[in-house]
């Protein structure tokens, strides 16, 4: 099954090269969507062998993923993997996330950081993630432990039918809700999460409240 | 003429001239500036035509307010609320359009650029 890996990236010059190189071992194409980085993210991605698309203005993770989906749907890929470019996810676990898709067991696979090492996530984020996952599970009718994980795999049909509109972190829950409403099968698999002490990325409380409101509105 | 009438008239006149100059310079529609033109004219009238003030007093009392300043303040706040709502909606629309343009440019640029080296996975 031809697979594309889509990585939204913003100022990830220190990690993107390694991520792309490792992801290329498991996917036919790696597409890095550079969300108007101010460093050498694009250059490093290209050197590592990725196809690079660049935004002239920063749109956010959801916007970058949307661009990546639209670009890669033009080719004949049957499965798509998304992951973060900051080194939080291990590209060597791409086969784990892809496996249920290849076996026909699921249409969307979410790599849950909480199934394997629940305490690896910082407490503040864990609490927020828990609340959002409970609400997303309730709204979608599917038990989801890590609704905010960006490490996912999709069958092509899912992206052709359900494309998120949110440009910020709300995309994560929105995509699951759209898919659930269209009766696509959602499955979770455990993946490793790597939290570097110096890196402080991800949604904050304000984003969390926006995601919560958006999810409740869609349920 | 009372001092406040002089101030109101002068301020209204200056703002009216600036607004008309802006209207001529930008060549934008009259509708866009009509609210401001009406406001400056009302200010000038309040300062120059005493009967206008009494009309305002009548409207104020009809609405159950004590003085015209209460009416003006309340009316101004309501107008600002409406303006804020409209501007928020407009900004959201423009934000959506801007994102669509950014994505379109990114996809168009990707189409015209050569694709980066692809590595085929063995046994795929």
Can you walk through the features of this model?
The complex is a heterodimer of chains A (219) and B (124). By secondary structure, chain A is an alpha/beta fold. Helix content of chain A is 41%, strand content 16%. Chain A is built from nine helices and seven strands; from the N terminus they run βαβαβαβαβααβααβα. A seven-stranded mixed sheet of chain A has the order 3-2-1-4-6-5-7, sandwiched between helices. The radius of gyration of chain A is 16 Å and the shape is globular. Chain B has 124 residues and is mainly alpha-helical. Chain B has two domains: 1-48; 66-124. Helices cover 81% and strands 0% of the residues of chain B. Chain B has four helices and no strands. Chain B has helices at 3-26, 30-48, 50-62, 68-112. The radius of gyration of chain B is 27 Å and the shape is elongated. The N and C termini of chain B lie far apart (91 Å).
């Amino acid at each position: 099954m031809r697979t594309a890996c889509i990585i939204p990236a913003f100022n990830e010059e220190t990690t993107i090269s390694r991520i792309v190189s490792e992801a290329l071992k498991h996917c036919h194409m790696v597409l890095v969507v550079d969300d108007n980085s101010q460093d050498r993210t694009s250059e490093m991605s290209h050197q590592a062998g990725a196809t690079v698309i660049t935004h002239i203005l920063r749109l956010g993770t959801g916007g970058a993923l949307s661009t990546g989906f639209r670009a890669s749907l033009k080719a004949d890929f049957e499965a798509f993997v998304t992951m973060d470019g900051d080194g939080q996810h291990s590209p060597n676990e791409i086969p784990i996330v892809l496996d249920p898709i290849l076996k026909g067991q699921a249409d969307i696979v979410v790599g849950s950081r909480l199934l394997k090492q629940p305490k690896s996530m910082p407490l503040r984020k864990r609490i927020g993630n828990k609340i959002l996952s409970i609400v997303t599970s309730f709204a979608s009718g599917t038990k989801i432990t890590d609704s905010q994980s960006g490490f996912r795999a999709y069958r092509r049909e899912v992206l052709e039918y359900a494309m998120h509109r949110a440009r910020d972190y709300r995309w994560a829950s929105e995509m699951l809700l759209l898919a659930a409403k269209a009766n696509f099968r959602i499955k979770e698999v455990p993946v490793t999460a790597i939290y570097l002490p110096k890196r402080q990325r991800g949604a904050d409380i304000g984003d969390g409240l926006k995601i919560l409101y958006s999810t409740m509105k869609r349920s | 003429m009372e001092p406040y009438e002089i101030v109101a008239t002068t301020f209204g006149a200056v703002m009216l001239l600036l607004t008309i100059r802006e209207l001529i310079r930008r060549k934008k529609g009259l509708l866009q500036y009509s609210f401001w033109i009406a406001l400056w004219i009302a200010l000038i009238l309040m300062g120059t035509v005493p009967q206008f003030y009494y009309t305002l007093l009548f409207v104020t009392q009809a609405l159950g307010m004590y003085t015209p300043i209460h009416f003006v303040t309340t009316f101004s706040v309501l107008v600002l609320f409406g303006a804020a709502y409209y501007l928020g909606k407009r900004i959201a629309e423009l934000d959506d359009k801007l994102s669509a343009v950014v994505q379109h440019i990114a996809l168009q640029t990707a189409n015209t650029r050569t694709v980066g080296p692809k590595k085929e996975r063995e046994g795929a």
